[in-house]
Amino acid sequence: MINAEDYDWIGIVNPEDVKFGVTFVTPLAYYSEGAWKPIAVDARHQCFPNNGKAAIFEKGFPISNVSRLWQFHPERNEQLPTPSMYGYSCYVVSGGLKPAPLAQIIEWTARANHPFELPDLLEQGIVSARGSISTTISTYMDRSG
After folding, report:
1. Is the whole model's pTM more than 0.70, yes or no?
2. Which sign does the torsion angle of CA 106, 117, 41, 32 carry?
């Protein structure tokens, strides 16, 4: 298992993850050995225990930042009294979100009709990448308009 704090990540903020006073980022890929590497759902829950996400504790997260890819760096959530509290994030976003750079990941965004589909499509792409398909440069296209 990889240590989430040792890597930079690309994640997405889904609309249902914006709450009053806290927003959650779902990690999709991490940067290692000069490339962005996708992470499967089961591995995500191992790297980000409890809810599989990193938290941002701020009020009024801009709706314009929802359903977009963001780069972030996680650090241990020191506000969590017990690390095993189910549903709480073991990690928080350190230093805020940054717009995701061109990401060298499997071409999965073109197959998504909605951002909610991205984590599932990314996991499906991992399986096909084990064959002869190489990674490609892709960017997230805002499909909302």
Report:
1. no
2. positive
**Residue range 23-38: average pLDDT?**
90
Domain ranges across the chain: 4-101
110: number of Cβ within 10 Å = 8
Across the chain, what does the average pLDDT equal? 75
Q: Report the C-alpha gap between 132 and 91 in whole angstroms.
A: 35
Q: What does the alpha-carbon distance between residue 90 and residue 79 come to, in Å, rounded to a whole number?
A: 9
* Confidence (pLDDT) at 135: 34
The CA-atom distances, in angstroms, between 42 and each of 25, 31, 51, 90, 138 are: 16, 18, 11, 16, 24
Residue 109 in tokens: 């965004």
- Is residue 132 classed as helix, strand or coil in its secondary structure? coil
Phi-psi bin for 61: left (phi > 0), alpha (psi -120 to 50), beta?
beta
